[in-house]
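Title: Prediction job returns without error message
Component: structure pipeline
Severity: low
Priority: P3
Assignee: unassigned

Description:
Job completed but the reporter wants confirmation the result is attached to the right record. Sequence as submitted:
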Amino acid sequence: MSYQALNTSPLYSHRICGMATPLVQAIRTANGKTEASDSEAIYTTIKRNFSQILSSSSLAGAATLSLGLYVGGALRDYSVLSSQDEDIIIYLLLDVTDIDSKQMTFVKNGAGNTPAIFQLLYKVDASAGVLA
């Protein structure tokens, strides 16, 4: 599912915020890898970090929510770690400037306390374990 399809889907509510600077740097690190498997390992760590943020929160039912991750730029996706039907899909859009890089969070309608999920994931830094 493309960003445009997610953005116009009646199945999801969404919010857009700036991306945490360390997360932008982690994605830039991944994109600088020469081996695709090295980049994919970084994206997988970022996805796992988002999942851990959810599951360790005090938000009721958060640990049972499924999460997908897209990482991309203006012209293409760098990585799609999503079955495209998760409860939460995070789309990280990298721009040439850190300040214009965005985190778009999509929450499936009926998946839980949507405002609390948006608040929990707002500009969260999911780069732990990526940058040395």
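Comment from assignee: result matches the submitted record. Residues 10 and 109 are 8 Å apart (CA to CA).
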